[in-house]
TrEMBL record, chain A:
Organism: Papilio xuthus
Stated name of the protein: MOB kinase activator-like 4
Listed GO MF terms: kinase activity
Binding site for Zn(2+): 90, 95, 167, 172
Transmembrane segments: none
Keywords: Kinase, Metal-binding, Transferase, Zinc
Cross-referenced SUPFAM superfamilies: Mob1/phocein (SSF101152)
UniProt superkingdom: Eukaryota
Pfam families: Mob1_phocein
Automatic annotation (TrEMBL), chain B:
Repeat as UniProt keyword: yes
Key words, A-Z: Calmodulin-binding, Coiled coil, Cytoplasm, Phosphoprotein, Repeat, WD repeat
Intervals holding WD repeats: 361-402, 414-448, 468-497, 567-598, 599-640
GO cellular component: cytoplasm
Organism: Papilio xuthus
Domain Striatin N-terminal: start-end pairs: 38-159
Identification of the protein by name: Striatin-3
Length: 224, 677
């Protein structure tokens, strides 16, 4: 891959799976692409997915809106992996509603009027909806600067996305654990939303790193 | 008995006759008395009577003839009227078609709104032409024409009038009418015409007519000429007509059969047909044939020339057959029109010099590694490093931005790969399936949801088809032909699959030259070659091998300095095209294995290659962020489009041509796919 003095950071067709994206790190300052933040985040995750501090340590002089936006993109992307695993086990017959604990039924916001989708549909629709929103030319036309009003949209995406984690945790624990062991995604997500106060602590119902007890919920239906 | 009846009948006459004779008594007596004169008288009477009878029957024949002539002229008049209406309708229709075509052209050019199948109802955009209504109106118009053509074909026995109709069309009617009074019947009419006018002038006339027809044919193709399009486009229109003519050959054959009759019919009827007439007929036939070859749309009229000649020469006997033939023809023409319309559009587009970005497909979270168009629909599938594939329907644009581009939202997201998806192949038309290969080493078969699916429908596990897991490393290339799938993998093998069979793996293609201790070089890309009888596989070490798919043995080895990123077989020629890391595109002769041509095509590694379905143009994409369109004949760059941004050192990862429609697309590391029209 190294071509004398110049390093080409690209996956040539025919690369073996183990060599995929295996190139020397590029310092963030030297990244001149419009996708620099994504490159940087992916590069740090690849180095060590468990090192949450490093992954979520924002480079200096970085626009925080873009930083949050790019992280959320990365979360949604990696959540595809969880959705793939859930597809094999989470059936509409068994998980007829999107629930985590028994206290809430989450309504799927992808439809004109929010409706009670089965959990797997809720998962897919939420991820598809997030993909549409985060790639929307209207709200996020640029990946180097983001309007304040658009940054506010990230909160609702995070809230919905978190339900996917919580459903997997409470109903498909084996899948959740296997996935978490590999990606540390839920831990990272929790750390992320807490660090930037994107969603309120009461909603984070999963027992955190050291078995924090989930905060009690009132019974009712959540606005999707 | 005979005599008495005669005398009763013709009493007066007899009386007058015998008044001269001596005996002036009753008839019987006088007949008896005038011995000599009676047989003479009777004979005379009989003779006279027979003469009158003859005359009467002759008059009756004449009358019948005149009546027939009146009927004929009336029919002619009716025919003229029908023709007039017919032409007026045609003109109106053509005007309408022209209008539609202009609207469509305008839309294509300025990208306001393209597809009729758009979900959005037309009333939302009052300033533009009502596009969705277009189809319905077309249908209505076609129905109308069909109706009136049937009317002409079936209700009137005006087939001999066809010739007049055509002549009217050709502006030869006056001459015809001047000749009219000379006709006694149809036979004579034809003979006289042939006799009167010298062959040459006739030929000239029909030649002229032919030209006229051709012109008419072109103008049918909408307002292309008027809009000042290039010769190429006109050629495209003609190509389209050739296609039409092919379909109509059957009809022409039928008419040729009919047209053969006049050669024999006139002699049978005992009329003298001189060589000239025969020649004229031959010329007519020739004209009609050449017309059918080149004329296309105007086919009905030249057929009319021949058919008219037939009817004129052979008389009314043909009248029963001809309406049928023409009726069928009329239907054929009508039923062809929508196709003609589409194909004309397609050809026109593919010959267009410049492609413009029209749709931006944003929904992937990471680089788009591959894309493939649906075999027929305006839809495509993209495969991304975000582990998903997405299906897009270009006719369902979601939000029109203020600027030129249209945004499309994906119709469906395919989730099953557990690693980046690297390659993609579309199944056969109507199979509604596609295949994807990923870094996870799997090849997955997908059943495409219908283009009407809602992105937020419930999850249907049936979308996932069989999974092919034999590869032990990343699958980097897929090619599909006639239900067989060819894959190339970083594990050093290429494999041939029957994806849905119980035992899907048909064979494994390995480089035999590499012996055990050495790991085989990863296979980079593969494509079918030589009419699917062979497979061309390129490896990371620069080797290119051609395998016979029957024996699975390699039969041709080509070594190249620079590893190729892509290989594509030319759709018609024995030619392979490869895209290389060293910025080159190379062309390989399949027979000799020699490099037929090599060119520096980009400023950076060439990553994507696509050939248009006719094999005339080549599309290439590169990490230098540009897509280039090449004329394969001259090997010159026709257009360059800067399309994608860089992520690390990657930019464009794949390019594609739509197999039928005028779309090209590029996929980029920036997570976008773009479609150009």
């Amino acid at each position: 891959m190294a071509d004398g003095t110049q390093i080409l950071r690209r996956n040539q067709p025919g690369s073996r799976a183990k060599d995929f994206c295996r190139w020397p790190d590029e310092p963030f300052e030297e990244m001149d692409s419009t996708l620099a933040v994504q490159q940087f985040i992916q590069q740090t995750i690849r180095r060590d997915p468990a090192n949450l501090e490093a992954i979520l340590k924002m480079p200096e002089a970085q626009d925080e809106g873009v930083w949050k936006y790019e992280h959320l993109r990365q979360f949604c992307m990696e959540l595809n992996g969880l959705a793939v695993r859930l597809q094999s086990e989470c059936k509409p017959e068994t998980c007829t509603q999107m629930t985590a604990t028994e206290q809430w039924i989450f309504l799927c916001a992808a439809h004109k009027t929010p409706k009670e989708c089965p959990a797997i549909d809720y998962t897919r629709h939420t991820l598809d909806g997030a993909a549409c929103l985060l790639n929307s030319n209207k709200y996020f036309p640029s990946r180097v600067s983001i309007k304040e009003s658009s940054v506010a949209k990230l909160g609702s995406v995070c809230r919905r996305v978190y339900r996917i984690f919580s459903h997997a945790y409470f109903h498909h624990r084996a899948i959740f654990d296997a996935f978490e062991k590999e990606t540390h995604l839920c831990k990272r997500f929790t750390y992320f939303v807490t660090k930037y106060s994107i969603i309120s602590k009461e909603i984070l119902i999963l027992p955190k790193l050291d078995d924090e007890t989930p905060i009690a919920q009132t019974i009712g239906e959540s606005e999707a | 008995m005979d005599d008495s009846s005669v005398s009763h009948h013709n009493g007066g006459q007899v009386g007058s006759q015998i008044g001269v004779s001596v005996n002036n008594k009753q008839n019987e007596e006088s007949s008896q008395s005038v011995q000599y004169s009676i047989p003479g008288i009777l004979h005379f009477i009989q003779h006279e009577w027979a003469r009158f009878e003859l005359e009467r029957s002759q008059w009756e024949v004449d009358r019948a003839e005149f009546e027939a002539r009146i009927a004929f002229l009336q029919g002619q008049r009716k025919g003229q009227e029908n023709l007039k209406n017919d032409l007026v309708r045609r003109i109106k229709m053509l005007e309408y078609a022209l209008k539609q075509e202009r609207a469509k052209f305008h839309k294509l050019k300025y990208g306001v709104e393209l597809q009729q199948g758009d979900v959005r109802p037309p009333p939302e955009e009052p300033p533009t032409e009502p596009e969705p209504a277009e189809k319905a109106q077309w249908k209505q118009g076609r129905q109308l024409i069909k109706q009136y053509l049937q009317e002409i074909g079936y209700t009137d026995t005006i087939l001999d009038v066809r010739s007049n109709r055509v002549r009217t069309l050709l502006g030869l009617n006056n001459e015809e009418q001047a000749e009219d009074p000379n006709y006694r019947n149809n036979d004579n009419k034809f003979r006289e015409r042939c006799g009167d006018s010298p062959i040459n002038s006739l030929i000239r006339k029909y030649d002229y007519g032919g030209k006229e027809q051709r012109k008419g044919g072109v103008s049918t193709g909408g307002g292309y000429n008027e809009e000042g399009l290039s010769v190429q486009e006109t050629a495209a229109v003609f190509a389209n007509f050739e296609f039409l003519a092919n379909q109509e050959m059957d009809m022409d054959e039928i008419d040729d059969l009919d047209a053969n009759k006049p050669h024999h019919a006139p002699p049978k009827q005992g009329e003298e047909v001189d060589n000239e007439a025969e020649e004229v007929l031959n010329v007519l036939n020739l004209l009609a044939e050449s017309e059918a070859d080149g004329g296309g749309q105007g086919d009905e009229c030249p057929v009319g020339v021949v058919g008219g000649g037939v009817a004129a020469a052979a008389g009314g006997g043909e009248a029963d057959e001809k309406p049928l033939a023409l009726g069928e023809l009329a239907q054929l023409t009508v039923s062809n029109e929508p196709e003609a319309y589409d194909v004309a559009g397609a050809n026109k587009e593919s010959f267009r010099k410049t492609w413009n970005a029209k749709y931006t497909l944003r929904s992937h979270f990471d680089g788009v590694r591959a894309l493939a168009f649906h075999p027929t629909e305006a839809a495509l599938v993209t495969a991304s490093e975000d582990h998903t594939l997405k299906l897009w329907n270009l006719q369902r644009t979601v939000q029109a931005k203020k600027s030129a581009g249209l945004d499309v939202e994906p119709l469906y997201t395919f989730r099953a790969h557990t690693a980046p998806v690297l390659c993609l192949a579309m199944g056969l038309p109507r199979s509604e399936e596609c295949f994807s290969g990923g870094l996870d080493g799997t090849i997955r078969v997908w059943n495409l949801p219908p283009p009407t699916a809602d992105p937020y429908d419930p999850y249907d596990p049936a979308v996932q088809g069989p999974v092919l897991r034999e590869h032990t490393d990343a699958v980097w290339s897929l090619a599909c032909a006639h239900g067989r799938l060819l894959s190339a993998s970083a594990d050093g093998t290429a494999r041939l699959w029957a994806p849905r069979a119980a035992r899907p793996l048909l064979c494994t293609l390995r480089d035999d030259a590499i012996t055990a201790p050495h790991a085989p070089a990863p296979a980079v890309a593969a494509d079918f070659a030589d009419g699917e009888a062979a497979a061309a596989v390129v490896y990371r070490d620069g080797t290119m091998l051609l395998y016979d798919l029957e024996t699975t043995q390699s039969f041709l080895r080509i070594a190249c300095d620079s590893p190729a990123n892509r290989i594509r077989a030319h759709p018609t020629l024995p030619l392979l095209v490869s895209a290389h890391e060293d910025r080159h595109i190379r062309f390989w002769d399949l027979g000799s294995g020699r490099c037929a041509h090599a060119m520096v095509a980009h400023l950076d590694a060439v990553t994507g290659l696509a050939l248009d379905p006719n094999g005339l143009f080549l599309l290439s994409g590169s990490h230098d962020c540009s897509v280039r369109l090449w004329n394969l004949d001259t090997k010159t760059c026709v257009q360059e489009i800067t399309a994608h941004r860089k992520k690390f050192d990657e930019s464009i990862l794949d390019v594609a041509f739509h197999p039928l429609r005028p779309y090209i697309a590029s996929a980029g590391a920036d997570g976008l796919a773009k479609v150009f029209v």
